[in-house]
Amino acid sequence: MVNIGIVGIGLVGAELVAQLKATSNKHLKVVAMTTSKKMVLSDTSYAPLTYANAQDLDAFAAYLAKSPEHAVIVDCTASDAVAKLYPSWLQSGVSVVTPNKKGFSGDLSLYRAIQASAANLGKGGKTPLAFHESTVGAGLPVLSTLADLVKTGDKVISIEGIFSGTLSYLFNNFSSLSSTTAARPFSEIVKVAKELGYTEPDPRDDLNGMDVARKVTICGRLAGLDLDLSTLEIQNIVPEPLQKVATAEEFMAQLPNFDGHFQKLNEEAKKENQVLRCVGLVDMKGGKSGVKLIKYPASHPFASLQGSDNIIKFTTEYFPNGLIIQGAGAGAAVTAYGIFSDLLKIQERVEGY
């Protein structure tokens, strides 16, 4: 039996609860849930949070640590403060599963503390584990594939990918070589993406490249590089005057004034029979890791991507022509699927399957 405590019952947390309930897995049991305002510590039986207890993450973790069975905290937040608690949770013998990128892409000392804590036996002889497949590509097997490449002795040369579903959607619709696709202003595509819920409330949080940079950092660290956000080359594609406006509404109102800027970039790519894609790169040898707006020829797999899919290409000694993973890399259902898969991996290890 694996007892589960879930921190954050938003879209992803609620979807995870629904998936666990739907499968009726008797080996995974939710025994605690908490939001920022409410907390319940008991066998929830997937019931909604109805208790008015204020959140106390210390008490939450202590409750899980006392579990006679293996316990896991699933962090479904995007909080820096919660991520900083991972080492103490692991040291108490509680495993961690999360889609929260902050602990694995933030301060290098925190990342090392998480890795060290997960590598050692916790109190009472429990072996805590830390899984975060859904921090990159949601439910896509990106990190598990990379880990397998590393563990089997393959040498990673580069990792290149369209890691953001938002940026994938924007540039797949804006920059195309299809003669049947009418060119639309970049601002119009951003507006539609925002209305569809593909972007953050402030689209600059997608366009500034930081989300992709976090995923690049996570992949790079897993591959053996000590990458840090402060030293990565991150291309912010928001025009400089718009980086400083106060609100998202003001940004959206002024973005049409810069359609010519984006159109010029697109036309320059088209003249070379290429398209624009916003890409994350892990360069294992050349030191050129970062986030960039790059032109690709029509024959490249990145040029033919559809919708909001992610695509990641591993180039290694075993796979010199590239190993490609492609599919939906965002959304509550696929993110919860990635978390669920990690929980099953822990269950299999704990129960010796």
Write the layout of secondary structure elements.
Elements: E1 2-7, H1 11-23, E2 28-34, E3 39-41, H2 57-65, E4 70-75, H3 80-83, H4 86-91, E5 95-97, H5 102-105, H6 108-119, E6 130-131, H7 142-151, E7 156-162, H8 165-174, H9 186-195, H10 204-207, H11 210-223, E8 233-234, H12 240-243, H13 248-254, H14 259-271, E9 274-283, E10 290-297, E11 309-316, E12 323-328, H15 332-351
Parallel strand pairs: 1-2, 1-4, 4-5, 5-6, 8-10
Antiparallel strand pairs: 2-3, 7-9, 7-11, 9-10, 11-12
Number of domains: 2
Query: What structural class should be given to the helix and strand makeup?
Result: alpha/beta
The multimeric state of the shown protein is: single chain
- Numbering strands along the chain, what is their spatial order in the largest sheet? 3-2-1-4-5-6
Q: What would your notes on this structure say?
A:
- It catalyses: L-homoserine + NADP(+) = L-aspartate 4-semialdehyde + NADPH + H(+).
- It is an enzyme of class 1 (oxidoreductase).
- This protein has 353 residues and is of the alpha/beta class.
- The chain has 2 domains: 2-138 and 333-351, Rossmann fold (3-Layer(aba) Sandwich); 142-329, Dihydrodipicolinate Reductase, domain 2.
- Helices cover 40% and strands 19% of the residues.
- The protein contains 15 helices and 12 strands.
- The strands form 2 sheets. Strands 3-2-1-4-5-6 form a 6-stranded mixed β-sheet, with helices on both faces. Strands 8-10-9-7-11-12 form a 6-stranded mixed β-sheet.
- The longest helix is centred in the C-terminal third of the chain and has 20 residues, at 332-351.
- The two termini are 12 Å apart.
